[in-house]
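To: structure desk
From: M.T.
Subject: fold request, one chain
Message: Could you run this one when you get a chance? Sequence is below, nothing fancy, just the single chain.
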Amino acid sequence: MSKKIISVFFTAACLLCCVIPFAGMTIFMSNDAVGNEQQTTLPSLYSENGGINEKYLQQLGDYFSTHFAFRPQIISADAEVQSGLFSTSNLDSVVVGKNNWLYYSSTLDNYLGRNLMSPRAIFNTIHNLEITQEYLNNNGVKFLFTVAPNKNTLYPENMPYYYSKKESESSNLKNFTASLKNNKLNYCDLYTTLSSYDEVLYHEQDSHWNNKGALIAYNEILDKLGKIHNNYDTAEAVRTKNFYGDLGKMIYPSTQQPEYNYEYDINKTYSYLTPTKSVEEAMISTQNDQASGRLYMYRDSFGNALLPYFANAYGSAYFTKAFPVNLALETGIQKSDTVIFEIAERNLIWFAQSPPVIPARELRVPSNITESDSKSDVKAEISQVNMQYVSVTGAVDSKLCSDDSELIVLVKDKDGKSRAFEAFTTLNDSSDFCFQAYIPSQLLSPDSVYVSIIIKNDNEYLLTDKQKADIQQVEFNQ
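Reply: Done. Structure tokens follow.
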């Protein structure tokens, strides 16, 4: 009899645990997003056109999964058990390390030396940045590119033991910096600088640097640019325990403990021109009557801590997270004299996937071209980022290329004349040997364009067969 009673109580307890998150939604519904997730809204039974919403049950399930009662407490309790007893994470996006350290899972491949960017992908990234730099320099604008190292690149000692065996000692950042042989790209090496400090400059439960690390990065960048600036070497730094990291919020939404950060006594002389509530906003514009220079800065989340320093250093500054970078239009509007691109190491491949929007440089049509019967996949469409340009994209046969082959887009303009344009070298899920060129719309007929690709291997030029591409117009989702 006692065993039956225990079974009944156990079954009842299990059912109660299952019912409470659902039944409790009437009183204790969770409406706060956890970590970086996007909160869902209650779906409608009917679609916009008045019919039945066929995805209603799926959407209702998604809604429940982000709103059930006591959600932050349940997630935190599960995380505390798994991390405390098993040294593992309850979230695929977070790695639980030693000594309460947390790491971003998207950095694992790079840390373990696996699934790295190919030599062609590395070339594409550098080549595209060099094209961007040349465009800006020709317009009297300074350019600098920098990479914020992954947390486990600088501080691997707290990674969990089960990731101790690496497939290789290579990484995307190592391969990238090793490929900068000709020093043509104005690159600021933050890894070498940050790794020279004995103290830890990143947060334990966040994927980013702390304010001291950001200050060091700021000084290194402006030193590299040769800009006179305040280095804040005499600014008083107060170490306060009031920072809540992004990874900690994701895995311990209700039990996260604050950690130390540095607060610098800095006189902020800038003001916002945009309605700015947080440095995390996508587009921010500042002005500063006590400084000179006009900065345009593409930055990701590492740039949040950098923004106050750079806003203090420039007379006007425009900070954007929009990608791809609408560079030609926005630097023209801002009248920028300096452009900085800052990106996290884990996202280094982005500039090989989606280069900045600038007009392709027109070249002379080479005279020593060898024709081939190879065909290239070609697509042409009005750019959704900047409608002044037709984006010509596609892929070439990798067998005709080397890892450092440059690509030239040859088109017939609206008058039937052949014109050659330097192309960005890009990649997609299928090939690392792709291209993209932003050609001014007024040069082409509005309906279609004939395209051939010239593959440059050293001083030899190979021409692919001509393809007709209908120019797709911009379609915006309503």
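Reply (cont.): The first strand starts at residue 94 and ends at 96. Let me know if you need anything else for the meeting.
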